[in-house]
Give the backbone structure.
Amino acid sequence: MVFRRSEAGRQRSATDPVTLKLLVAGGFGVGKTTLVGAVSEIRPLRTEEVLTEAGRPVDDTRGVEGKRTTTVAMDFGRITLRDDLVLYLFGTPGQDRFWFLWDELAQGALGAVVLADTRRLADCFAAVDYFERRDIPFTLAVNVFDGAVRYPEETVREALDLDPEVPVVLCDARERDSAKQVLISVVEHAIATGGSRGCTTAARRCPQTRDGLVG
């Protein structure tokens, strides 16, 4: 995938930008669409539909009773971390009946964010299991909702039975800088576990320090 610079007077990089694909997954109403929208430098693509009475028997809205829409296919956004490093973000649908789309979205993904809500922690079990089974590196990002209890990292890690190397971070999916740090964590973790399926040669060209990624 090649990026072409359209701005007059700007020289193209000596090498094409590294373009990496990341997934944003998690349970229903955990903040996936919000995170993609907060960090994307382009207007995000959203495939949201209004929740209806017809879906009430299959849509578990406990804990998110105020939610009025749901993602039915995917969210899509883009963020440029440096001139030579671009991330494409694909938010997965959170409801069980749309999980058949996950395999298509996961094709070619470097890594993933699994968003979690400590008030409904069990909702992210399926996403954790999905990426573990497919050897796709992921970061567990606890979305800090207003009024939610904040638990220590080790408490969350133990509750989800995560491997020691899986990063666990707190974030506010509404805040661009917070969401950006989550994405950096995923890239760094994927690079560190370079033997995984998602870590391509292009990914290993990325800087391996946080300062390098942000600078």
User: Anything to note?
Assistant: The chain has six helices and seven strands. The beta strands are 18-26, 45-50, 69-82, 85-91, 111-116, 138-143, 168-171. The longest helix spans residues 176-192. The first strand starts at residue 18 and ends at 26.
